[in-house]
């Protein structure tokens, strides 16, 4: 069975780090390499990493240039053939996830660049769950990938891909999107498995919209990426993304966090229905 690489990055999220560690400690499948990157946390995270070093194969505790720089560091330390990025606060959905994924990897009959499954979006661990992709039953994966991307918390990327393609640290919020679009432009083979891989904690950096400065930065990044990968006008791309991000902030303020994520869940489901296989 194949060894799986797992990278966790963390900065001042001790409680989230504990959750991630516990999730990996309970895995039935033990043939995994675990790399932890901490950005010089001041909340006890660094000490916690050292106290639990028996779970970790390699770690770095030092300042970095942001989330994507830390992810690149962790990937560079991994020797496993397929690598999962499971950041602090995120966790695997049950104790047999790695066992099931290893079986899928072992049975691959072609060179797959990215093997991805479902992420379970979670708010406060009990109030609201939904999956990404948000489609009941089978779906047209290639068509879906033209419009959407996997979550890195549920995607196992071949080491050879990471040797050639790193996360671009220019992007503070949109580095995941840029990375997936780059791989798709290269015609990397993605394979989907209908398996819940990880819990994705809502409210993290990739779904955070807290103020106008954040909205402006996200909109700038997405406008640039839409220009390069979708051939869209920069100014129109900025305006569209700004409007979308502002509406998210508005709805969250008006309706509250729980209602906002319920509406987002419903929107995701409706938008993705057209990719469902007709049986």
Summarize the structure.
By secondary structure, the protein is of the alpha/beta class. It is 43% helix and 20% strand.
Please state the overall shape, judged from the principal axes of the Cα atoms.
globular
Radius of gyration: 18 Å
The overall pLDDT, averaged over residues, is 91
Assign a percent range to the helix content.
40-55%
The succession of helices and strands, N to C, reads EHEHEHEEHEEHEHHEHHH
Strand content: 15-25%
Low-confidence blocks of residues? none
Task: Give the class from helix and strand content and strand pairing.
Answer: alpha/beta
Subunit organisation of the chains: single chain
Q: Count of helical segments?
A: 10
Terminal-residue CA separation: 34 Å
Largest sheet, if any? 9 strands, mixed
- Count of β-strands: 9
List key phrases describing it.
9-stranded mixed sheet, 10 helices, alpha/beta, 279 residues, single chain
């Amino acid at each position: 069975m194949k060894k799986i690489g797992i990278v966790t990055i963390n900065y001042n999220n001790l409680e989230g780090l504990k959750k991630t560690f516990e999730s990996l400690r309970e895995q039935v499948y033990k043939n995994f390499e675990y790399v932890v990157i901490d950005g010089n946390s001041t909340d006890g995270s660094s000490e916690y990493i050292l106290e639990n070093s028996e779970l970790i194969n390699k770690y770095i505790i030092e300042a970095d240039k942001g989330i994507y720089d830390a992810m690149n560091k962790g990937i560079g330390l991994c020797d496993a053939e397929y690598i999962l990025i499971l950041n602090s606060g995120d966790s695997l959905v049950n104790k047999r996830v790695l066992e099931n994924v290893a079986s899928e990897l072992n049975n691959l009959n072609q060179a797959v660049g990215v093997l991805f499954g479902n992420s379970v979006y979670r708010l406060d661990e009990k109030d609201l769950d939904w999956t990404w992709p948000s489609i009941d039953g089978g779906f047209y994966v290639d068509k879906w990938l033209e419009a959407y991307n996997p979550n890195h918390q549920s995607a196992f990327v071949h080491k050879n891909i990471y040797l050639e393609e790193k996360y671009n640290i220019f992007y503070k919020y949109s580095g995941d999107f840029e990375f997936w679009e780059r791989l798709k432009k290269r015609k990397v083979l993605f394979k989907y498995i209908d398996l819940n891989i990880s819990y994705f904690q809502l409210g993290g950096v990739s779904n955070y919209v807290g103020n106008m400065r954040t909205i402006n930065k996200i909109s700038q990044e997405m406008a640039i990426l839409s220009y390069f990968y979708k051939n869209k006008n920069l100014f129109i791309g900025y305006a569209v993304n700004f409007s979308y991000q502002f509406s998210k902030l508005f709805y969250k303020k008006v309706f509250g966090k729980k209602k906002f994520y319920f509406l987002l869940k419903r929107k995701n489901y409706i938008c993705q229905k057209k990719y469902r296989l007709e049986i």
